[in-house]
Task: structure prediction
Amino acid sequence: MSNLLYVLSFPFARYAIIVGVLISLCSALLGVTLVLKRYSFIGDGLSHVAFGAVAVATVLNITNSTFVVLPVTIIVAIVLLNAGQNAKVKGDAAIAMLSTGALALGYMLMNVFSTSANVSGDVCSTLFGSVSMLTLSEETVWLCIVLSAIVIALFIIFYNRLFAVTFDENFARATGLKVRFYNLILAVIIAVIIVLGMNLVGSLLISALVIFPALSAMRVIKNFKGVVILSAVISVVCALSGMLVAIVLNTPVGATVVVADIIAFIVFSVIGRILKR
Amino acid sequence: MALITCKNLTLGYEGVTVTEGIDFEVNSGDYLCIIGANGAGKSTLMKALLHLIEPMSGEIVYGDGMSRNDFGYLPQQTRVQKDFPASVWEIVLSGTVSKKGFRPFYSKSDKKCAEENMKRMSVWELKNESFRDLSGGQQQRVLLARALCASGKVLLMDEPITGLDPKVTLDFYNLISDLNKSGLTVIMVSHDVHSAIHYASHILHVGPTQLYFGCTDCYLKSDVWHNFGGRESGIDCEECRHKIEDVNSPLYRDTCDHGHGHIHQKKSTPNGEPKMGNTIQPAREHEPDKGEKKVYTGLVADREDNTAKEENDR
Result:
């Protein structure tokens, strides 16, 4: 406990907590839509692409990689979502190709061109999140806060339309909703969340942050608004407790947060079973 | 001017023509059924009307105050995600979403519209229920309420009765019929031909090209109908004829064991024209030898009826 208080007395630790909470909130809000739209795998694919972009940024010695990674990920997200609508290119295979390709390429670049003394440490922290999350610069923290605010605002403004597009895309399009536009917004938001989430849990685990809270909430709640709210709560609680536990027990932050999400999923599954009876 | 006019449409996917020469118009208050064999392009035409695909050539013109997206749309049951966590209220309300312009949230009038249409479809008391827990018929009525929220003018339906049981199907047809009588224009894609000719005012029969468009009565006299398997005169069935008068009787229209729709026909009228909606079309081959008026409709209740009748005859 004293360890916890000691760590929290540093401003960067408080930054880390703020960023973690915001990221988990954003990912949970959008996670419900992504899971129901069957887009979960796109998030996974994108995170690998983001890893590749990080590798490129590292090689090019760019200090704040977010400015490279974010645009690249957004562009790939838009391409992937549009490809999903094209019957000729089957979405899942395209994504699998792109994600594994980016992963391999990224790892190779990091190995061959890296100037750092600890290559495997770099790779590991990009894949699984920084060990302590305390390496966040103030700049990154502000970027996280601004982007999270934008994501949350967009989600609230377009909430009703996103619901319509998620529930029945054909109906929405037939009645004149600009479905392509909302899918585009969704693609951009997914990309932003993935890039932000990499700071917290790393590129391999970010999908868990998106998917677990939504699925947990769906075990017990049967309306859309309720699921969105509950998944946001679950996600924030899990992220917060995961981070605090990580500080106290000195475990890797990303993995601890995801373990907390898994526990929440199991708990809510059991509650769902009991409620059904 | 007609609400919707389709001029010489050619429809297909990625350069492959599915159907061509589609030429018809829909006027306010019409009840148009689009029929045709499987793969004939019924659903493709529906998608074109909904702007889900663009026609390869030809055009769709809207008139009479109708705009491009002034549709209520009732999709095939199977297209809707059955495990989606959404309350009935959320779903019906989402029908109004396209009419809101730039307002991000639902207004009072949106909510009122949803409430009225839910009461009209008698699903108001299901307001807080989860959509996935409802029966097929209830789900269909919820989606219908949503469609009515999107437009009070034209209702497009894509094989709406797929997966509904006979009783619910009958209720559904009556509901649509009532809506049509109250002024709603109805366009329905259906493989249930016999219900189509019973309820619709107009028939559009599509194949590789347009085979027929016109009013239902004229359709029943056409070669297209006869070639499609429609019968001019079925079995003259005295028992059935008086039952047919009762529109609410389950015998009135139902589905036999083979999944065909049944239709009860009267005897040919004196001038030889078949009247729609009253000939028995036997699901089994009829044996004409004894001159006995035997009907098989595949309904258990009906079968019992007939057995009783036969015993009486003896």
Q: What stands out?
A: The longest strand of chain B covers residues 16-26.
